[in-house]
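Severity: low
Component: inverse-folding endpoint
Summary: output formatting inconsistent between runs
Steps to reproduce: submit the following structure tokens with default settings.
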């Protein structure tokens, strides 16, 4: 399970690296991850201090730190 989370975190990081700041819907669409897999990947990246989360009018935006 840990390996899968790490792989998914890599997918999210790659999207953010290539496209810059994205909202949750855009990341989910591009990575094709389930909600659970996306949230665990974001948790992994947040714990490592690799991403910044910003809430704007009920939308969550993610960018690389």
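Observed output (run 2 of 3):
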């Amino acid at each position: 399970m840990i390996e899968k989370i790490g792989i998914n975190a890599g997918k999210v990081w790659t999207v953010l690296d290539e496209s810059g700041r994205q909202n949750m819907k855009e990341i989910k669409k591009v990575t094709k991850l389930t909600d659970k897999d996306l949230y665990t990947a974001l948790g992994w990246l947040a714990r490592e201090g690799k991403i910044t989360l910003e809430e704007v009018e009920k939308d969550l935006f993610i960018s690389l730190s």
